[in-house]
Structures are given as C-alpha cells and as structure tokens.
Amino acid sequence: MARHPFDEAVALTRVAATAQEHGREAPAHFDGQPHPAYANMVGPFGGVTAAQMLQSVLQHPQLLGEPVALTVNFAAAVADAPFRIEARPARTNRSTQHWTMTLLQTDAQGVDATVITATAVTAVRRDTWSATDSPMPTVPRPMDVARVLPAKRVRWIERYDMRPVIGPIPEHWDGAESDSLTQLWLRDDPPRPLDFLSLAAMADVFFPRVWRRRAVMTPVGTVSMTVYFHAGRAELATTGQGHLLGQARSQSFFNGFFDQSAELWDEAGHLLATTHQIVYYKE
Amino acid sequence: MARHPFDEAVALTRVAATAQEHGREAPAHFDGQPHPAYANMVGPFGGVTAAQMLQSVLQHPQLLGEPVALTVNFAAAVADAPFRIEARPARTNRSTQHWTMTLLQTDAQGVDATVITATAVTAVRRDTWSATDSPMPTVPRPMDVARVLPAKRVRWIERYDMRPVIGPIPEHWDGAESDSLTQLWLRDDPPRPLDFLSLAAMADVFFPRVWRRRAVMTPVGTVSMTVYFHAGRAELATTGQGHLLGQARSQSFFNGFFDQSAELWDEAGHLLATTHQIVYYKE
Question: To the nearest whole percent, how much of chain B has pLDDT over 90?
Fold first, then answer.
C-alpha cells in the first residue's frame, strides 16, 4: 500500500550536525522538504510546516514524553526547496522537556537563513483529575453534513475532507460583514489514524477569519501559531480515523494583524487540542 | 520621585557578548535580576519574567516596530539571583521581525543553564480596517467594585489593584466544583501608565484556573504563555493609568496540564491583548 501523503510530507532524515556549539545541549539536524500534495498558494500549507517542526522533536533521540505545547513562528515564506531543521532540548527536567527548533533554507546568496523558529514542551503525563470547560457544540454528525470541495486553487485543500456546519467560506465577496465563527468537521483525505503530527496540522486548516468577517479576500499570512495538546497517545488512538469538529473565531482585527482561536474535538466530544494564531492581513 | 517598582523590575543592563556565534545574527546580552517587590511563592511572578523577556527585545538596538506576539516558556524556576538574557533578531523582514530569547542563570555546578526560552514578533503596523469580535462584557465600573486584598502570602499580589467582578479566588477550599471563569478590574499599584511591558505582565495576573474550577489548592506552574498585542503605542497611551478589565477561563484540564485563555480590555472597551497559557497542575 502506498504511504499516505501526510506521512511522506512529515518524513525527516536525521543528518550529522555540521556545526558544533558549546556549553549547551547540541541540536540534532534533520533534512526535509515541502511536499507537493500540501502546496499552498505560495509555498507549503503552514499546518504541515508546523507538523514538520514537531516531527523534529518527536524523532529526537533525547525526547522525553509527549507534546503538550507547540509554538511555530513563520518568519519567512518556506521556499519549494529542501530545508534543514535543528531541534535542541533546551532544558530537560524530571517529567517535562523544553525544545527550541529552527528551520533553515539556503538563500539566493548561499547563506543558511532562518525561515521558521519554534518552541515546544513535551511531558510525561500522569493520570490526574481531568475535566473540560469547553463542551463540544451540538451539531449534526459528520455524515449528515455535505462535504465541500472548494475551488482547487491550492493543492493542500484536497488533502482534507471538510464539512462546514456554520460559517463556510463566503460565496459572495461583497464586503458584507458578519461574525468570524466557523464550525466544520474535518479529517485527512484519504483517512489516516490521528496522531500528534496530523493534529498539529489540522490546527491550521481554517480559512482566514478576516475573509469570513469581511467577505473581502485580502492577502494574509500566519506569523505565529500555538497548539496546546489536551490528549495523550491513547486518546488519539481512540479517535482513529474519525472526523474532528473544528471551531474557529477571532477576537481582534487591528492594524494589520488578527488573532484566531480554535478548538478540535473528536466525534465522541473529547477536546483534543486548542490552538491560537496571529495572522497578518494587508488592508 | 522614586522609580516605580515595575520599572525597577524590568530594568536590564546591556553587556558585551561573551561568546561569538557564526553565520546568524549575533544576540545582544542583557543582565537583570528578579525584583523582591514581585516575588512569588517560589521565585519571581511569571508576568514580570515575561516582561523582562520582552524588554530584551524592546531595548535591542536592531528593534523594528512594536510587539505583536510574545511566547515565553518557563523551562525551570527562576532563582532569586542575577540572570542574563540573550535576544537575537532571528529574521528581519521589511515590516516584521522575528526574535528568539533565552534567559540563563548559573547553576550550582557553575554552568549557564537555560531557564526561560521565548520568541517574539514585532512589526511596523499600518492603519487598516480594524474591528473586534470580542466586545467587553457588561460589568460595573472599577470604582464601583471593591478592591480585594488577598492574604499576603506572596509579594507580587500587592503590586496590583485587583477588583474581582465574578469568579474570585475560592473562600472555601471544599472541593466544590464550579466553572473556571474570572472577571476582574486591575491596574498597577501604585498606578503606572500602561505600556507593552506592563500589559505583558498583566496577562499573567489571574490566579490558577484549576483553583477556581475545583476549589482545591493543588500545586501549579505555568509552562508556556503567549500574548497577542492588539494595540499600538498610541492606544496604550490613551489607556494611561486606567484600569483594565481582565477575563480568564480554561477549556481543558487533562492529566496534569490545563489551558487558560484571557482578554484584557481598557475602560473604554478596547481589546488591548489576548493571551493563552498552559499550566502544570499536580493532581
């Protein structure tokens, strides 16, 4: 059976470190490249880039525990060319570990330029009292909602089965203002068992909130995104290939940057991740 | 007139770099130390640590623009001892700039250990269409709400005038579960004109959501926090020494980590910042 395109996209190859740094934990170096199946308008879909940054942690030989938090800063557009990710365990405690990651690409001048910076927290979780204060909204089940196949301007959209419940992408770009809320069912296409990498990528599937809010297609670009994981490997395994309910909305649009907060529940109503990002918009 | 304790706390001294790194932008180095007026149960109040990390960016000679996003990872407890912050402009674009920062302290073995990692995005903002999707809740005005002076277990609490509207810290630690929502008016004590540094600190003033949710005082510690700034220097100047309305709640408590999302509005109802954090809890 052919490998799932997402697995191809997040495959990294560990390489020997080329530079020695002193006095701190040395980073591990990984080679990777954007995958054509997840191409965006310019460069790759940011969700897959976020997953690649997390992958460098998950494949690091010194990894402790499972992901708790991930922040990815999109410092420049990722070029359709090979990249290197450096992942460093900045601090390892008894049950938590803090990571810094950098994605580099060789620029036109032959210099390794920083394209993405990121941090992550991993932890060995223990069973504790647990609860949710964000119950899943009451919505129709995924198979009772029509899948939307948007105009195929970008490749990565085809890699997700998306079923908007409310707040679809505007049909008419007429400047009619509304709220910024979208709810949709989503899963990989073809289906793929959920893991931390695909969950991180799905945190970035929502079309830009400013498009929903204004019905004006202004240019946008995420500059920083954070994902908090509220599930362990066992909970993700239970979700399997089922749909996730995603909900996203903004709180502020101010002079060129808006925020987005989103939640991802599985079909059983477990809140698996909450995620936040700040996005540049042009006008 | 004596300097405000917050200004003393965020004062950093730039020092000559001690190590040379090659191939990337060199970091600037700053010396600082925890301030006794902002002491927490163990080490300093995390909000002031976040402000110190941001200060290293604001004082950096290569700074471009104003803060848009800040993520601070609390990798270890900050000791009551001097520290060094390294701040590096990882990528400078035409109107945005990406930063990585590290706070180091010399450990018992004489080694410089990473205590805090952080990233920030700064930008030269342009006037654009702006709007908010998170209007300020309708609440009594600050002077109509009683200031609460909690038991003085920790010093930093005294540095904030806090007036809980709903969801105060539990009076009875009887395990009676409720929701995780708190709304309160707050400002510096003594009053101080709002700036990006004090706004970043105020993003961390909320007592742990798990205490509110459970009425059980379990040990906690923030592991990562993110602040998105939705105001420029002019908007902060307009706020001046007025109170901010803070609102905080959690979405998930799962096996040792809970999240917190919060908003900060000024008295005129402008949403100045949204902020998110993930917090360790013991049981």
Answer: 90
Pick from B90, B202, B194, B119: nearest CA to B157: B202
∠ CA A267-A271-A274, rounded to 5°: 130
Residue B58: per-residue pLDDT: 98
Looking at the partner chain, which of B127, B180, B213 has a beta carbon nearest the beta carbon of A255? B127
Cβ contacts below 8 Å, chain A against chain B, sum to: 221
Alpha-carbon distances of B127 from A18, A266, B44, B239, rounded to whole Å? 44, 40, 37, 19
Q: Residue B193 corresponds to which amino acid?
A: P
Which of A71, A112, A283 has its CB closest to that of B71?
A71
Amino acid identity for residue A261 in this structure: S
Spatial contact of B247 and B182, defined as CB atoms under 8 Å apart: yes
Please write the tens of the pLDDT for every residue from A1-60: 689 999 999 999 999 865 554 445 678 999 999 999 999 988 999 999 999 999 999 999
3-state secondary structure of B48: helix
> Do residues B84 and B15 make contact, with C-beta atoms less than 8 angstroms apart?
yes
For residue A42, the model assigns a pLDDT of 86
Residue pLDDT, tens place only, A133-170? 999 999 999 999 999 987 767 999 999 999 999 999 99
What are the boundaries of each domain within chain A?
5-123, 144-281
User: Can you tell me the ipTM of this complex?
Assistant: 0.96
List CB contacts (< 8 A) between B125 and chain A: 254-257
CB-CB under 8 Å, B69 with A91: no
Q: Do A257 and B213 touch (CB under 8 A)?
A: no
Bridge partners (DSSP) listed for residue A234: none
Identify residue B195 by its one-letter amino acid code.
D
> A231: which residues sit within 8 A by CB, 6+ positions away?
A199, A239, A270, A272, A273, B254
- Nearest chain B Cα to A258, which residue? B230
**Do the domains A144-281 and A5-123 match in fold?**
yes
Q: Which of B193, B184, B190 is nearest to B236 (CA)?
A: B193
DSSP three-state, residue B275? strand
Which of B102, B119, B177 is nearest residue A73 as measured by Cβ atoms? B119
Q: Which amino acid is at A137?
A: P
Note whether A261 contacts B259, CB cutoff 8 Å. Answer: no
CATH superfamily name and code, B144-281: Acyl-CoA thioesterase, double hotdog domain (2.40.160.210)
CA distance B110 to B113: 9
CB B138 within 8 A of CB B265: no
Digit-coded pLDDT (tens) for B17-64: 655 544 456 789 999 999 999 999 889 999 999 999 999 999 999 999
CATH superfamily of A5-123: Acyl-CoA thioesterase, double hotdog domain (2.40.160.210)
